Amino acid sequence: MKKNLLSCILFLVPSLCLQAQVTVTVEPASDQTISADIYGHFSEHLGRCIYDGIWVGPDSDIPNKDGYRLDVLEALRELHIPVLRWPGGCFADDYHWQDGIGPQENRTLISNNHWGGTMEDNSFGTHEFLDYCELLGTKPYVSGNVGSGTPEELAKWVEYMTSNSQSTVVNQRRANGRDEAWDVRYLGIGNEAWGCGGNMTADYYSDLFRRYSTYTRDYNGHLYRVACGGIVGDFAWTETVMRKVGTMMDGYSLHYYTIPNNWDHKGSATEFDENEYYVTLAKALNIEDFIARTIEIMEKYDTTRHIDLIIDEWGTWYDVEPGTNPGHLYQQATMRDALVAALSFDIFHRYSYCITMANIAQTVNVLQSMILTDGPRMVLTPTYHVFNLFKVHQNATWLPTSIEDNTYTSVADGRVPTIAATASAKEGKTHVALINTDLKKSQMVNLQGVKGKVVSAQVLTAKNVHTTNTFDKPHEVEPKAFTDYKASKQSTLSVKMPPCSIVTLEIF
Ligand code: AHR
To answer: What is the pTM of this model?
Structure first.
């Protein structure tokens, strides 16, 4: 406190001295790179994510390119999405890829049994997904069906997508309009094998992983196989899969959802009190324990760190918006979601020596989405803006930060730091993101260790934590230029953060 007082007297205007100060120090370097794929996405055949959200079909009145809606395509391009996971989720283990290839009129009509029994006409299939990834400039991550499919089916799918041979299945792809193999690297061997992916035991799944991996041949020389992790807290699952599968896998995946209350009554996306706000943030932060304990087990079996940790589903999960289909998981979003995203990225950055990919659930109209659509209208969520502001961290060198004189809000599920910070360096520039979780109070942050001038600064906040972007008012929560900072001495900035806000600074 003495130090704060002194810096107030020496460097700050008197009005700023009345506020508590937190000091954030950014270290100049590290040997850790933040993999771009940590900014990955997930799009499942669930509710209106694919249909309405991404794909409207070429005959739609909604402006589209070959069936992909243009407004969403452009908005997603802006995010520089590095990797997109598809077709599920739980849908993946019900999905038979042959249903979704060839002329549209011959595609199979099925019931999407896991997600509300909605009819699925398979008009968006392998070609539509992989061509979309090319349009977006993103890497595909395909989840294979292990729960209800055979090793032969998955083997043939991989061959169809990635081989350039003259085999019948590859020539079938050519006949369907695609000569060259697509560059598919990431392959999920099942999804949530402990639950919707087949209700398997870890032992049984491990054996199946070995079997399905054997027959999914590496035609392109870089096929990367991802194994399913256990349900949150099931570390015995991790022990078993690591012991039995070991380095036959390249990635080991965890799923972690932030649910304010419980699975039966998750809580509203927009109506929550102060306690529920902090509980949500505390629960989001608890992913760190899950990650740290998983890495500990992984390192026991994989001493050379061959296997990456992948968080291929994460985000907030609330009760669906009133009046919408309970099986479609459509939810609104507020600054609370923006803070969950920013705090999660801080954690993923810190563990980027092991975490190489993360995929938020889900891209459009489902769970913590980037975009909501209503017929021809589209709205960007607060989470979209976090992904856009944070994309500068993709492939950057992570810079460790330390925080002094921080305060905490304690709730039943943990404690929430008032200030969090994450930083990285790329091409001579330093990017710092500061997060003020305090709902009511602005905070003075003394930012140390950053050399150069602020060349750009943005703030994401809202009038009120319950404010949402709606189709009638789409610009309520969006980044604005930020000027409430001051260079107080060499390599030190005083930043005044509004309550419940995220400030990003580019320093050069
Ligand atoms: O993202 C929604 C669902 O959550 C996914 O289908 C499943 O993998 C998870 O339980």
So the answer is: 0.95
